[in-house]
Amino acid sequence: MSESAAPSDTYSYLGPAGTFTEAALKLVDAAAGKPWRSVNNVGEALDDVVSGRSIGAVIAIENSVDGGVSATQDALARIPGVRIVGEYLVPVDFVLVARHGTALADVRTVNAHPVAYAQTHNWLEVNVRGHGHIPASSNVAAAAALLDEHPTADAAVAPPGITDHYDLSVLASSIGDNASAVTRFVLVSKTLALPEPTGADKTSVIVELPADHPGALVDMLEQFATRGINMGLLSSRPIGDELGRYRFVIDLDGHVRDERVADALLGLRRFSPRVTFLGSYPRADGVRPEVPARYSDAAFVEARDWLRAIVSGEPDPR
């Protein structure tokens, strides 16, 4: 797709063509038929959104095998003014590719993105004994580097379908160590408008602890536990100003327009010196949380009405 079209129509993704991120972008209905811009890293993708070069960017935020993607979490904490407006799940599997004429027994060095290498390491240890690993900037870049005039690796870990883009030979398929591996991608935009609640939503925030003392993390988590809110992700990342200082990337079940979630965010705001709201958006899996009656919207509204009646001098409705 052309990269010269109007910036307001463009979507950025970690490229080049053939990456899992591109596969995730194909799931974004709004991006269909629009120009897509290939970028080299998460920071560049978010900068495209902030600068207006792109209306949105798809970035990986979590993997079912390796957990949170630290580069994305750190970038979201560092770059203000962006919101998550959607999430997409992409099954992850890999193939081992090489130049034509290379046999599996010939492989001594393997080019692979660090995350891809971590997810195929067991297979490689068994089938490519004693191999060396050369890190690549992306899964597709790992394969593309094999076609350099003087490649530094004998083979590469790459996504299925890579041979549609590069003239390489597949030495082995389905080499992932976990057949159920899934990567979660998010669509990030500059828009402040919230997607409407669907009943199957997530809310993402970044929270810093006010001080390093016994029970500080428990104090933060109580903001959710006392309101019946489940966390789908809790990941710690160093703030970077001194040792022992961490921020927490958190996914909550529910939408900010749900009374229990809104009340929890108010509690977080009182508790923490810095709370970054990343967005409320529909869950990709469509799962609706089970909310006990005491944490329902009606329960919060009734409790407020009860207190309002007391404050205004009305009889206690009991």
From TrEMBL:
BP-aspect Gene Ontology terms: L-phenylalanine biosynthetic process
E.C. designation(s): 4.2.1.51
Every Prephenate dehydratase domain range: 10-190
Gene Ontology cellular component terms for the protein in this record: cytoplasm
Domain ACT: 205-282
Sites marked Essential for prephenate dehydratase activity: 183
Pathway noted in the entry: Amino-acid biosynthesis; L-phenylalanine biosynthesis; phenylpyruvate from prephenate: step 1/1
Pfam families per record: ACT (PF01842), PDT (PF00800)
Keywords tagged on the record: Amino-acid biosynthesis, Aromatic amino acid biosynthesis, Lyase, Phenylalanine biosynthesis
GO molecular function, one term: prephenate dehydratase activity
Ranges in a coiled coil: none
Catalytic reactions on record: prephenate + H(+) = 3-phenylpyruvate + CO2 + H2O
Gene3D superfamilies, per database record: 3.30.70.260, Periplasmic binding protein-like II
Class of the enzyme per the UniProt entry, highest EC level: lyase
Protein's name in the database: Prephenate dehydratase
Species for this entry: Curtobacterium pusillum
Gene: pheA
